[in-house]
């Protein structure tokens, strides 16, 4: 089982999307910075991570010289400890020697050796996703697309439309 997050940005759309009472949609879970339990080897998540990793060079090029309309650059990495494996958004981040360093942007739920705001170091091959906002449109965030496939179509489409998220893999 792997544990992933949609994105903290989803919190701002939570009020726009409705769900039946008692339901826990991806947007509602993102608003609370909760984790999603995804089966190991999930084909949608694996495809999303492959797409994100294959496009890292383009992401790093944009992040190095962003246009004024671009903000919110972050990468997602997995962290393991004796309690499990959990994925976190890291922002800001910077190159440090052969790797990267950045601030943990989520509250750990399973991994107990970290807390939100901690600085971690990681290798490029540990990055499983990336995100930024360009003129109000979300770029990257491929793992969110995999998670949105599990949501009611209307809610997933509303999220994608609100943020201009392109989920074609």
What's this model, at a glance?
The chain is an alpha+beta fold. It has five helices and eight strands. The strands form two sheets. Strands 6-5-4-3-7-8 form a six-stranded antiparallel β-sheet. It has a two-stranded antiparallel ribbon with strand order 1-2.
Structural summary, described in words:
This protein is of the alpha+beta class. It has one domain. It has helices spanning 26-31, 43-54, 56-64, 142-148, 153-163; strands at residues 2-4, 36-38, 70-81, 84-96, 99-104, 119-122, 127-134, 137-140. The strands form two sheets. The chain has a six-stranded antiparallel sheet. Strand 7 (127-134) and strand 8 form a beta hairpin. The radius of gyration is 15 Å and the shape is globular. The model is unreliable at 8-22 (pLDDT under 50).
Salient structural properties:
169 residues; single chain; alpha+beta; six-stranded antiparallel beta sheet; 8 strands; 31% strand
Blueprint of the fold:
Elements: E1 2-4, H1 26-31, E2 36-38, H2 43-54, H3 56-64, E3 70-81, E4 84-96, E5 99-104, E6 119-122, E7 127-134, E8 137-140, H4 142-148, H5 153-163
Antiparallel strand pairs: 1-2, 3-4, 3-7, 4-5, 5-6, 7-8
Q: Give the SSE string.
A: EHEHHEEEEEEHH
**Dominant shape:** globular
Mean pLDDT, rounded to whole units?
Answer: 84
Major sheet summary line: 6 strands, antiparallel
């Amino acid at each position: 089982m792997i544990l992933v997050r949609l994105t903290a940005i989803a919190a701002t759309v939570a009020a726009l999307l409705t769900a039946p009472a008692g339901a826990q949609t991806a947007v509602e879970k993102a608003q609370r910075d909760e984790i999603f339990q995804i089966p190991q080897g999930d084909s949608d998540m694996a495809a999303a991570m492959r797409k994100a990793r294959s496009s890292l060079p383009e992401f790093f090029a944009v992040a190095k010289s962003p246009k004024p309309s671009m903000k919110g650059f972050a990468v997602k990495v997995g962290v393991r400890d004796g309690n499990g494996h959990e994925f976190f958004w890291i922002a800001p981040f910077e190159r440090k020697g052969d790797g990267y360093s950045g601030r943990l942007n989520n509250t750990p739920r399973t991994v107990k050796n970290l807390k939100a705001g901690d600085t971690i170091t990681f290798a490029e091959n540990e990055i499983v996703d990336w995100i930024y906002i360009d003129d109000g449109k979300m770029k990257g965030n491929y793992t969110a697309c995999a998670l949105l496939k599990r949501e009611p179509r209307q809610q997933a489409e509303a999220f994608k439309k609100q943020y201009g998220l392109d989920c074609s893999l």
